[in-house]
Each structure stands twice: as C-alpha cells, then as structure tokens.
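Write out the 3D structure for:
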Amino acid sequence: MDLTSKLAAQPGAEPVPGVPDAWHWSRMIFSFDAVVSGDRVLEMRVMGEYDPALARAVLELARDHAEQVFGGDRPLVTLDGLACPGWDFDTVAAVGPEVHEYHSQEDTDLHKATVALFPAWRQEFAGSESLAEARHQFDRGLQPTRLRRDPVPFLRMRYRNERTGSHSEGPDRGLATLDVLRHELSLLPGSPGSHVEWENRLGVIFRAEYDDTLTVHGPDGSIRTTGDDLVALADQSVLRPEEAV
C-alpha cells in the first residue's frame, strides 16, 4: 500500500513545507495533517482554530519517536517534549485504529495504518489506561481535535453516599473529573457509612470516609480532617501528585 499516494490524493492536499512525506488538507471546519512513517501514517486533526506550526511540531515529535508510538502494546501512548510558541501543551498523545475511527468509512486499509495524534498535557495521562479508558478519553474526555481547551487532570474514582443515594457503577475506580471528585467529597460530612476513593496519575490511592468524623487514608497513613482541608488535599493529590506521595 502506497501511503504517500493515499495522503497526496486527499482532496486539496498539499505538501507540508520542510517535512518529507507529510501532507495538509482541509474539509469544512476540519484541518488535517499527516506524515508517513514506515508502514504507518501519523495524523492530527483539528476542528476550528488551527496552527500549522503546532501541527508540524506534533508530527515531527511523533515521527522522531516512532519506535515508542509503534513498539508497545498500550492503547494510548504519550510523548513528552512538545514545545511550540504560543501554546503550553507539553505532550503528544497517540492512539491506534482500535481507538480512533479516522478513515474507517472511506478507506479501511488506511484506517488500519493510521495512528491518531493530538497535543495534550502530561498531567492528563497515567500510562496505564485500558482500551476502554483510551476510547473514552479520545471520544469524549479530552476533546482531542480542539486546540483551545483546558487540561483534564487524570483521575480515577469510585464513591458511595448513603445520604444522597448516589454512587459509582461497579467495583472498580472509573475515570472522572476533578469537579466530580470535589463535589462528592463536599457531600461526605453528615453521611455516615459513605466513602470516596480516588487514584491520581501516579497510581497513588486515597480514600475518604465519614463516620462521626472525616478520615482520609493515604500513602502516609490515616488522618482526620475537615471538609475544606479534604478538598484541598484532593486538589493537591490530583494537580500536584508528586507532592502528595
């Protein structure tokens, strides 16, 4: 399969200056950039605001570290070191055809050869994402085709509140946002038998429980705390996990 010809044949495709075997094209509100690397295609898609310098930086970092992108068995791979003036992204994320649907409708062979890229922040990933989690993050959690977005710090959690009746589904911790964690922690006081358990991107687990007082179980043992202190601890554990170990 001649991948270079397939990219060059995309409607309106033009070579990316200074990047061999790379092409740019646009369609409606989307911009596309892709580069051939061996028998694979590395592709970045952007909806709305677009910056060719950022797209080039993403393609070049992924191509230069293709062995990391292609060599493992993780459904989601991250490459640190992204830098582009005007943007504070520090990471490129890459997912394979088991996660994305690029070209799946019009060219199944190209779909199978394509790795989808997007700029991101290191704090958004743990490196242990399951296939289901990678799909969730790519489809909904991280808005990979939008450049103007806020970071979504990596977080898994589970909870049960006996007073409100709210609870997470299943026995495992699932992906969540920091706002959800803060909200459930704020509901713990006055709800005996309730708990909130969360895991940051380093894999460190915390569990807050309420009986007659709030107690947090963490890597340094158990502490009693107030509601305000509990939310501050949660923020630190997720936003600055290195300080919470």
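The chain has two domains: 3-141, 156-244.
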